[in-house]
Amino acid sequence: MGFVMASYSAARLVMFSLFAIILSFSFISFEASAASESFSFIEFNIAFVLGLSLPVLLMVFIIKPRPAIKKRLPVLLTIALLGLLYSLNFHPQNHLYTSLIFGCLIFQIISYWSCNYHLVGKTLSSSFSLKNGLFFGLFCIYIFALYSAVVSASVAWLLMASVQVIITLIYIWLSRNTSHEVNIRSLTLLAINIVFAAGIYFWLAGNLALNLLVAISVTTYLLAMANGCWHIITTLITRENDHKALSTRPQVQVSYDPTTNLPNYQYALSFFEQSIVNNDSARYAVIIFKPINFQQINGVLGHHNSDILLLQLAYCLQKSIESKDELLNFSTPESPVRLARLQGLHFLLVMDVSQTKHSEDLIIEQLCKELALAVPGPMSFKSFSSFFKLAFGVAFVGQNSHNLTEVISWAEDALLQAEKQQKLVGFFNQEIAIFNQQQLHKMEQLKYAIQHNTLQWSLQPQVKVQSKRLIGFEMQVSWQRQDDEILNLADMMVIAEQSGDSYTLSRQIVSQAFKAIAELQHLNMSIPVAIKLPENSLLEPDLIDYIEQQAETHNVDCQWLMVEVQEAILLMSSPQAKASIDQLKSLGVKISIDQFSGSYEALRYIRRMAVSGIKIDCYSLAKATAGSSDKAIINALITLTRKMDLPLIGTNINVIAIEEMFIAMGGEFGQGQRYSAGITQEELPYWLTAWQKQYPDNA
Asked: How far apart are CA 158 and CA 150, in angstroms?
């Protein structure tokens, strides 16, 4: 509250001093001019404007912290009015264009002042650039119209004023949700400006006296400046009330994170909220970052030792940015602290971008690059050393949300997006929010579909490619959402993993597979049915018991079930995954390796553990040319598996050209849309009958 009273006292002292000086000079001027010539009406108004403007301008410049008002606007408005009055004072007909140019400047400055508020939900830099471009472009067109004599001066003025009023109205309409006070202030300035524009037009048409035009111009100036003073006073009152509220609010005690000696989440959030209240003209960007490869270090060194490296990292980063005044200081000015520790490995930076003249995104990206370069490397602990890499996520207070907790969470979403895309910096936008909402909606819909068994199940045949003899089926599942989007099993697995429904989905896949096996045996077809399971399902201890239970329920042997395991799971060398595979084999369940790559590690695993077959993707053969690498790799895998006497099934054999190429390479078994896109269990008896008639080897 002290700074408010000091500002008031300074402003009052300056105003009284200048008023006394101006009054003294006025008396001296009148005494001197009594013997010669009295002031003209215009000269009197020039003196009046000079005497009035100086205290107001000084008040705008003196009051600290600066109110949310552009200092250049009242200064330029004063200069433009004085230019207009001087032009009118010296033969206005000879200086008509000069008078009209100064009049246009007054009109545009007041219009610009009406639009000098942030658009809600719009990017600040882009909206200001658009506004500045429109105003400057209109001014240039007006100057061209005056001096080229394309139209008369009155018509040029009328067109300029009309376009300017329309632009201002559009801008006021777009920013209507800012606040009620801002709306009143903008509309007041617009009304003042329209009266001024009408006065210029009628003066050009000869319907308004010169002295009356001067009076209207000065009155317009006075009302515009009064409107600006109104803004200053309301800002000061608001700040005084905020300081009173803060003085009665319990102060949060500074608390530090024990690992990094940085302010913790609770204190940083409370301090941030108070900073927003204290400085309402600031525009804050929330920057969240993390060392993206720190989890591996935890696994090697353990949490206690890795915390020492984290302390070194936090110290180096804090030292590199402690002199940057645009960053929020969570401590005292003598020992600034610009970083705060959030949950987990996340750190918080807050940047005030309201004073920057450059693109906010560029300034933030530059800061993030400096932080990334400030990471010491390699960081060592005893004989262990590692390089840290950082990823950043950014969200803006006010633009994205006014809730700080929500802004921080959105910055963390942008950080995740940057990490996925392997970018240094990610900026939050509504597309990320929409995508997250869509993902949540998909999770809810998939959970409902699994619980109410509304998924679509089908069987895809596996055949001997030359004779077309059936050797098995693969159970396939798809899901048609309410918006008619159809997701396959791979897409469903991703959503199910996120929603925690992967095990429930796996149980349904197993249940449907045993139903299909029982139906095939009822049709005198004893062939295996293959299934794919989500990766984490093999780690569920209850899955083996559920498979055994389903085999007993449907009265079929487990040997007719084949589980296709991703090669990546085998290479993880997880003891729990290996134990689950051993238990499945003990039940008689066949194991097949899906998406086999032929890597050395995979071949070693095949030698150690017998599998019933492998599968390779033949989709790339559709675009393969003679001598292409894809064709050579598939050819080598077919040759390798034949020498190892290991059954190989080629998948995605969708057209006859791929089938012929696959056969020419020595492939024996395949599946794909070439044979069938998928058969429901209701269609299975009719499909088998038709297949056996077409290919007698299946009878």
From this structure: 14
CB 260 within 8 A of CB 306: no
CATH of domain 2-246: 1.20.1070
Short-list 68, 67, 59, CA closest to 9? 59
Task: Please list, in sequence order, all residues whose beta carbon lies within 8 angstroms of the beta carbon of residue 501, skipping any fewer than 6 positions away.
Answer: 443, 446, 447, 450
User: What's the whole-model pTM score?
Assistant: 0.50
pLDDT tens readout for residues 317-346: 888 888 888 898 888 888 888 999 888 888
Q: Is 589 helix (H, G, I), strand (E, B) or coil?
A: coil
- How many angstroms separate the CA atoms of 236 and 195, rounded? 30
Tell me the C-alpha to C-alpha distance, in Å, between residue 27 and each of 33, 457, 520: 10, 100, 115
Cβ atoms within 10 Å, residue 545:
11
DSSP per-residue letters across 10-49? HHHHHHHHHHHHHHHHHHHHHHHHHSS-PPPHHHHHHHHH
Helix (H, G, I), strand (E, B) or coil at 634: helix
The 10s digit of each residue's pLDDT in 624-654 is 666 677 778 888 888 888 887 788 888 888 8
Q: Using CA atoms, how far apart are residues 257 and 368, in angstroms rounded to an integer?
A: 23
Q: Give domain limits for the chain.
A: 2-246, 265-428, 455-480+511-698
Distance CA 267, CA 138 (A): 50
How many residues can be counted in the chain?
Answer: 699
Give CA separation, 149 vs 142, 154, 388, 397, 474, in Å: 11, 11, 67, 49, 82
CA distance 257 to 120: 36
Cα–Cα dist 298/292, whole Å: 12
Residue 354 Cα distances to 12, 243, 316, 363, angstroms: 29, 22, 27, 11
The answer to whether the CB of 389 falls within 8 A of the CB of 380 is no
Question: Domain 455-480+511-698 class?
Answer: alpha beta
Average pLDDT score over residue span 145-171: 83
The architecture CATH gives domain 265-428: 2-Layer Sandwich (3.30)
Classify residue 506 by burial, with Cβ atoms within 10 Å: 0-12, 13-18, 19+: buried
Distances (CA, A) of 531 to 152, 288, 446, 587: 83, 42, 19, 16
